[in-house]
């Protein structure tokens, strides 16, 4: 395969050029790779958003490139660099504390920074954040407490229903004493 000629252009252009060089149609490539023709057309048009999720896009690029006789690794790396969504970093507790402190710094006109007292809003939200942090670090998480409380409530309803039914049976009227019994 003439891979040297395929080093110019987008991922889709490289895939399309390799398919044309192989002399196959989109539908023939789809049948051979078990990739839907609409996905092959989307890849060749650099429309990777049509492939549902990045994991599918990477897999389809790899399968299609291997079928076309291309080295899949550089194409997948190009896809990740150009199209894959970036992961959002998780903020640690120390970063959150520093951000909270930064919110309370006032810069004067002469360039000096002073700490200002927290506003009512930041005190409220700070209290809420503190409560959430305490709850998330508690010994019994809410995912255990709520179902357990629901189970206890359900058991209480069953017991009360059973005692109510037994009380209803005890209060049935007795047959009249002068009535003839049927045998």
SSE blueprint:
Blueprint: H1 11-22, H2 26-33, H3 37-44, H4 54-68, H5 72-82, H6 93-103, E1 105-107, E2 113-115, H7 120-136, H8 142-170
Antiparallel strand pairs: 1-2
Helix pairs in contact: 4-5
Notes on the structure:
With 183 residues, the protein is mainly alpha-helical. The chain has 2 domains: 3-82, lambda repressor-like DNA-binding domains (434 Repressor (Amino-terminal Domain)), CATH 1.10.260.40; 88-166, no CATH class. The protein has 8 helices and 2 strands. Strands 1-2 form a two-stranded antiparallel ribbon. A hairpin with a 5-residue loop joins strand 1 and strand 2 (113-115). Helix 4 runs antiparallel to helix 5. The longest helix has 29 residues, at 142-170. The chain is elongated. Residues 1-6 have low confidence and may be disordered.
Number of helices: 8
Q: What is the CATH third-level topology name of the largest domain? A: 434 Repressor (Amino-terminal Domain)
Global mean pLDDT? 75
Beta-strand portion reads under 5%
| Multimeric state | single chain
The whole-angstrom Rg is 35 Å
Overall geometry comes to: elongated
Largest sheet: 2 strands, antiparallel
* End-to-end gap: 103 Å
